[in-house]
Structures are given as structure tokens and as C-alpha cells.
Amino acid sequence: MDQLCIVTTGGTIDKIYFDDKSDYQIGEPQIGRILDELGVQFGYRVIPILRKDSLHLNDGDRELVRATIAAQDTRHVLVTHGTDSMVATARVLESIPDKTIVLTGALNPARFHGSDAEFNIGTAVGAVQALPPGVYIAMNGRIWDPRHVRKNVSANRFEAA
């Protein structure tokens, strides 16, 4: 794998909660800290482009993500993204040729004990290295085709669509 390019957009994975009323902000991207703590043996570069809950992403934001990824020289791209609109962004990214792009996120903030963030990031890192060019979603221990997956909000998981 050439250097891994990581594009961050915000989402639950980077949320910071302030009080018991669930008031939050999107903080600094957590993926670099997580990869450093895990002692990964590959080079990576983090490009933080948005700090939004994915419910607030719009077509312009998705185009910014697409253009940012398309402009990178690297073939391997990991995107951290909020789970609520991850599928919509993945579908926009399908127009980018010759890159393996894996989107991942978390159902609980990375700062929380027991968060699924590290597991999802690990799954995504393995997937981005092993899969052929295309766009994929890595969530809940599985690799999903964005055209055949949806987030089940009531069950708080991804499943076949």
C-alpha cells in the first residue's frame, strides 16, 4: 500500500459531549491518535475537511469530499464519516476511478470507553489494503457495497438493503 490518505468529515466518531443534555461538538479527528496508539506500520496522512454531523451534510459537502479524494495521488483512501448519511456520500464517491475508498465511522464517540471506533477503523484499514478499486463501507465487522446497504436507525446497525 502506498501512503494511506485519510479524509475526515466529522460524525459521531469525533464527537465531544459536554453535559448530560447530550450537548456536543465535533472535535479534532480521532483517527490519527488511534492509529498512533495502535502502532500501525504504514504511513498515513490525515486531511480534515469537515466537522459536521452527517445529518447536516449537503450536496456541496459531498462534492467537496469527492473533489478532495479525486485530487489525491494515493490509491488508498479511508474516510471517517457520520453513519446517518454515509451511504449517500459513498454513492457520490463511486464516480472516482482507480482508487480503493473505504468509509467508516462509529455509533459511539471514539472518546467513549467501549466505542466501536477502533474496531471499525481496523476493519477499514484492512479492507482498504485488500480490496480492488471501488467504494466500500466498513461497519459492524463487515464490508458493505454502498448500493446494497442501509443504516437501520432503530437497531443502530448497518444491514443489507
TrEMBL record:
Name by which UniProt lists this protein: Asparaginase
Any one Gene Ontology molecular-function term assigned to this protein's record: asparaginase activity
Stretches assigned to the L-asparaginase N-terminal domain: 4-156
Entry binding sites for substrate: S54, T83, D84
Catalytic machinery residues: T12 (o-isoaspartyl threonine intermediate)
Biological source species: Lysobacter defluvii IMMIB APB-9 = DSM 18482
PROSITE patterns given in the database record: ASN_GLN_ASE_3 (PS51732)
